[in-house]
Request: fold
Amino acid sequence: MLLLISPYLHIADILGYRTYAEVKGMLPTWKSYLFPSNTSVLWSFLNENFKPAEAFWLHYNFIGMIPTIALVSIPFLWIYWKVKKIKPSTLLLSMSISIFIIFIFYFKFDNGDSLYKYLFHLPGMRSIRVMNRYLHVVLFLILILMSTFLLKLPKKWIPVILLLVILDNSFYSENIYRQEKKVITERRESTIKWVVENRKEKDVAFAIINPNEPFFMTHIDAMLTALELKFPTLNGYTSHGPVEHSEFFQEDNIEGLEKWLKFNHIPKDSVLILYRD
Reply:
């Protein structure tokens, strides 16, 4: 576990540790499990009905209706095994218990209580900010558990199940930010060339300003260019950064950049500033 937690401990030494009050709002409630992306074909109508008021982008816990039903059915599965006097395999039993334990410790009740407050005091846990990443582990175990049951069904049901799975996971791709790899490569190569052609010996760093496109695209282009050229950039894209960088981060404008330069005592004339019209 130390190997897994060490990157979190490293960044916590730089940015500081979280308080329970900070992470409490990111813990999922039952509504989080019914909050899908608005790109979903079948379930997009649930988006507005179950949208959290606080940090909604960290509550997309809807994993599809089929896995969700499987998740809430686990206690009933135990009852079924008990009533029918079925002795499940050690693997099935351990997976079902693991799923339930992870789910219950990361669950927040409507009154705000959560068992996570006990996990929070374990070494390294105070360095973790985004809570719903635990769901990757839960979903992985659920899919294994479901597959063991599907293998026992008659083959004639496989086409029906496959259709249901496809419908359950279908989404409208036009509602998603996406670009072809060719376009991304061309953007990177163009940006690298742009910086190289304009770079002067006195420049200690560069910044790209482009108010005409989503800010994250400009920031990521600049970061990839900085990696390629080993030339520092003032652009940056992250889920958590210095407050003083926020205006330049969100607006990608000269006003935000100048404030960031002033805060760091960096002369403006030592920075290569590139504008895209």
In short: The chain has two domains: 2-174, 181-275. The chain is about 50% helix and 5% strand.
